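Is it possible to get an amino acid sequence alongside its tokenized fold?
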Amino acid sequence: MAAAVSAPPANNVGKWSTPLTTLFVLVLPPLGALGALATLVMGRVQGVHIALFLGGFVLTGLGITIGYHRLATHRSFETNPLVKAVLYILGSAAVEGPVVEWVANHMKHHINADREGDPHSPRDGLLHSHWGWLTQFAEIEAEKYASWTLRDPVARAVSATFIIWVALGYVVPFLIAGWEGFLWGGLFRQCAVQNVTFAVNSVCHRWGAQPFNTNDLSRNNWIVGILGLGEGWHNNHHAFPVSAYHGLRWWEFDLSGIVIRVLEAVGLVKNVRRPALGQIQRKLYVPAAVNLYERVAS
């Protein structure tokens, strides 16, 4: 779930380059965040810079949550090639790796959640689950963990051109608002999106509620739920990985789920997957609470 600037080969996800991972995750984005803070202190921040940050955060964040995660990884809904390409391109601009690589890593997490083989379990330490695992990332066979993406021409094409979409994520805000735009809409935005994603790995396997029996450490954390555009309802997700909706109760705000509902309503997505009430009841620690979940199953 982090930066890599080379496309994966045909049937393997190549071992990440530690220098590039360090540069595009642990060095440049934090420096960009500090630079953005410096422009704020100097009184040089304008509305366009804030708009570039917030707009970029939401768009590239949705590229990860809806595109990389719910569509590419868990196939929670179907859509046409154009919508799929747009979502994967936006996800690429978040600089969390090519879509094929991201899917393979995330599926390995689900298969080995909080057990040996999990790339980023907090059992190995909170800092390891948030950042440390990125410097130890080992080769993952895409054929084993993400074979369907290798058969998807859209996923393969966007992965092969990953570096272009990363570059555009910097160039577009620079063209709109100069170096301040580059800082706010490029590096600072990237830093925020990446660390919210990493918080799902770390925070949401350490702190929060656990309404479902998932046999792992996944938790629902409302702060990450909001900042992560719905991804912080992580225990819900581990209970029902293929569900297009992670916020299963009315107060579990899931912007990604709302966007999917809108896309479904206008006919851009179809076959949206959601858990049935019976499935929800069987996994709840308190089955009688199933009445709180009637909205998502309808």
